[in-house]
Amino acid sequence: MQYPQPIAKLIEGFTRLPGIGPKTASRLAFHVIDMKEDDVLEFAKALVHAKRDLTYCSQCHNITDTDPCYICNDSHRDKSVVCVLQESRDVIAVEKMREYTGLYHVLHGAISPMDGIGPEDIKVPELIKRLQDDTIQEVIIATNPTIEGEATAMYMSRLIKPTGIKVTRLAHGLPVGGDLEYADEVTLSKAIEGRREL
Amino acid sequence: MQYPQPIAKLIEGFTRLPGIGPKTASRLAFHVIDMKEDDVLEFAKALVHAKRDLTYCSQCHNITDTDPCYICNDSHRDKSVVCVLQESRDVIAVEKMREYTGLYHVLHGAISPMDGIGPEDIKVPELIKRLQDDTIQEVIIATNPTIEGEATAMYMSRLIKPTGIKVTRLAHGLPVGGDLEYADEVTLSKAIEGRREL
Fold first, then answer.
1. pTM for this one?
2. Residue B10 and residue A48: Cβ atoms within 8 Å?
3. Which partner for A112 in A117, B45, B116, B131 could form a disulfide, CB atoms 3.0-4.6 Å apart?
C-alpha cells in the first residue's frame, strides 16, 4: 500500500533533508496535514523566499539578503581583523559572544583531500585576494578543531604568514563547564600544551 | 546578531515542526538554501498540496485524496472485518504486512481522561454508527499497547460486545527477533499469559 499521492510527495520532500529518515519524514508530513492552512502556506513561502532572496556577501561570503552584508557594511566594525570560519552558521556562534567586532570570511568548507576538496574549492583564493588590501592586520583562523579544519588552518597560515599579516588560531582546551574526566586524550593533551601561568 | 530575515523566518517555520529544535532547524534551513531552486519549489508545493488536497475518508476516517478512500472503495476487500487503529499512519503499518484484507477505522487518538480526551473526541461514535450496518462481523481492536490504547480498547469492547459482533484485540508478547533478556516485565508477563501450546 502506498500513501495517497500528496502525502507521499511531502514525505519524499522531507526525506531529502539531512538527518531525516522515512519515519521522521512521515511524522512531519502528518503534522503538516494537521497544521492550520495559513501556517503551512507561510512555511512554504518561507522556503521559497529563503532560497530566492538570500545570496552570499561578495566580500565575506557570509549568507545575506543585502550585498555587501550588514557586517561588512557596518562602519563601527574593526576592519583590521578578519575571522575565518568554515560556515555561515559559525558567524552566528561568534556574533552571539558579543565580543568580536572585526570582520568575517566564510570559507564554505574545509580542505579535505579525501573528499577531493582543495583550497580552490573553498573561499581561500578570495581570502588571499582580500588580504592584498593593506587594512587587514590580523587573520583569526577559527575553522573547526577537526582534521580538515586543522589542515585548512595550517595551509592558510603558511600562505598568509609570509605577507607579514598576523595569523592566529583559536585556543584548544577544555570546554568551560566540562568535566576533566570526560575530556578525550587529544583535547587534554592540547589543554596541557596550551597551559598558562596563573 | 540575527540571521537575515528570510532565513530567520525559515528557521522559525522548521522549529514549529515536532521534534525539531533551534539547532536542527537552522541546519535544515541552511540546507534548503544550498538546495536547487526547483527542488525547493517542489517541496514548498508538496507542503501546500498535502494540506489542501488531503481529506479524511467519510467512512473509515483514514487520510485520503479521494472520498471514500481507495480501501473502502475496493470491492475485493472483506467488508465483514474492521480493524480499529489510532492513527492514519497505523494503516500503512498494517497494510505493509500484506495479509489483512478487511476494512479500517481510524480513531484519530485514544481515550485519555488525563488529557481530557473522551470517546466523543475521537471517532468512537462514528465506529458505533458504522456497526449498525449488518455487514460487519468482527472488530479487531489494534490501538497501541499503551495505557490510553488499552483503555480505549476496553471501552470499545464493552460497547460493542452486547451487539453480538466479535471483538478481538491484537496479541501482546515478545517482538519477533527481540531478545528475551531485554523484554520489559509487563511484556514478558503478557507473553507468558498469552502462551500457546505447541
1. 0.72
2. no
3. A117
Q: Which amino acid is it at A113?
A: P
Q: Do B1 and A96 touch (CB under 8 A)?
A: yes
Give the other-Cβ count within 10 Å of A109's Cβ: 17
- Cell reading at A67: 550585498
Q: Which residue of B has its CA nearest to A32?
A: B51
**Interatomic CA distance for residues A69 and B185, integer angstroms:** 60
Reading across the β-sheet that carries B138-141, which strands appear in turn? B102-106, B78-85, B138-141, B166-169
- B168: part of which helix (H) or strand (E)? strand B166-169
The answer to whether B91 touches B135, Cβ cutoff 8 Å, is no
Beta carbons of B51 and A65 less than 8 Å apart:
no
Instruction: Name chain A contacts of B25, Cβ cutoff 8 Å.
Output: none
Per-residue pLDDT at A1 exceeds 70: no
Looking at the structure, give the CATH architecture of the domain made up of residues A5-53: Orthogonal Bundle (1.10)
User: Tell me: the pLDDT tens digits for B85-115?
Assistant: 999 888 988 888 888 999 999 999 999 999 9
Report yes or no: A84 at the B interface, CB cutoff 8 Å: no
User: How many angstroms separate the CA atoms of B108 and B130, rounded?
Assistant: 16
CB-facing half-sphere around the CA of B174: CA atoms within 13 A: 13
φ, ψ of residue B84 in degrees (nearest 5):
-95, 125
Chosen CATH of A77-166 out of 3.40.50.880, 3.30.70.330, 3.40.630.30, 3.40.1360.10:
3.40.1360.10
Cis bond upstream, residue B145 (ω within 30): no
Q: Is the ipTM of this complex over 0.85?
A: no
On chain A, the residues whose CB falls within 8 A of the CB of B83 are none
**Distance in angstroms (rounded) separating the CA atoms of residues B106 and B126:** 10
